[in-house]
Design a protein that fits this description.
The chain is of the alpha/beta class. The chain has nine helices and eight strands. The protein has one domain: Rossmann fold (3-Layer(aba) Sandwich). α5 links the parallel β5 and β6.
């Protein structure tokens, strides 16, 4: 399988078998296509549902498989939901049945139900947590014994800057930052078996970046006066100009031998820029013999612990 971007046919993943969840559109599709271009046999998983996680359309995954085969690659479709344990199991089984092994798992499947917290329903919460956070667990749980037994394997998880704070998406933020914690622990659980697990935080124009979501981010900046994602300021045109293929390059690179020593880390992918996030750490501390009480905290905490920190969102509703 050769393309203009791979004219010499250099295939870094020749003979490998990969699963990509949510591979029917956007970032997942770009990842599946690039994996195949690099020689991997790919299980294209997608329910074909809506951005809210509803419905099934098997033609979505089938079209990606058709595109991969048309370019000379090998792929099969799977339509199971990652939100179900049996779904995660069947996705992994599809790889084993079709190709006899499994080497790479890219967890990308997702949905979005953006609502400010006082309008968020239990269904909104459960659906997003199930597809994102539990959806990463279900596939990893069934892939992990295979990777452990063969003493090799790669997992790439999909987090988000939304985990750093995102107006109107508490369900999505909680799920995505949970994925980062999951990634760090899986790296520790499986690293001793030569299995690595990393995460990416992509910023790209996909169908989850709806007009509603974009307006929420812009409202944060323009009305509330604070950054839209964590400490990041969003420019609409730049954000929407970021392509899924730019994300796929880093995700697939993490699956190659070039990244063999990278484990338990999370990366930013923002258009032309890639970056490595730091590990959270205590930035300031105070010690008091015998511990702290309210009076002692009153005396020094605001001055010495909190220091010059402020919250740009406090009182923002008054503007």
């Amino acid at each position: 399988m050769t393309t203009e971007k791979n004219p010499a046919g250099k295939q870094r993943l020749l003979g490998k078998v990969a699963i990509v969840t949510g591979a029917g559109r956007g970032i997942g599709r770009a990842e599946a296509m690039l994996l195949a271009r690099e020689g991997a046999k790919v299980v294209v998983n997608d329910t074909g549902g809506t951005a809210q996680g509803e419905g099934v359309d098997e033609s979505v995954a089938a079209q990606v498989v058709k595109d991969i085969r048309a370019a000379g690659g090998e792929a099969v479709a799977n339509h199971d939901s990652v939100a179900l344990m049996e779904g995660g199991g069947r996705i992994v089984k599809t790889a084993l049945d079709a190709f006899g092994r499994l080497d790479i798992l890219i967890n990308n499947a997702g949905n979005a139900r953006p609502r400010v917290i006082y309008n968020l329903t239990e269904e909104d919460w459960d659906s997003v947590i199930a597809v994102h956070l539990k959806g990463h667990f279900t596939t990893i749980r069934y892939a992990a014994p295979i990777f452990r037994e063969q003493r090799s394997g790669v997992i790439v998880n999909t987090g988000s800057e939304s985990g750093l704070g995102h107006l109107g998406q508490s369900n999505y933020s909680a799920a995505k930052e949970g994925i980062i914690g999951l990634t760090r622990t899986i790296a520790r659980d499986l690293g001793r078996f030569n299995v690595r697990c990393n995460a990416i935080r992509p910023r790209a124009a996909t169908r989850l970046a709806t007009e509603e979501v974009m307006q929420a981010m812009l409202k944060t900046q323009e009305v509330l006066g604070g950054p839209a994602l964590g400490k990041a300021t969003i420019d609409r045109a730049t954000f929407l100009g970021n392509k899924p293929e730019q994300v796929a390059a880093l995700a697939v690179w993490l699956c190659t031998d070039a990244a063999a020593n990278v484990n338990g880390r999370d990366f930013q992918v923002d258009g032309d820029e890639v970056g490595l996030y730091s590990e959270p750490a205590v930035i300031r501390g105070l010690y008091r013999d015998g511990g702290w009480d309210l009076d002692s905290l009153d005396k020094v905490a605001t001055r010495d612990l909190i220091g010059g920190l402020h919250n740009e969102f406090l009182g923002a509703g008054k503007h």
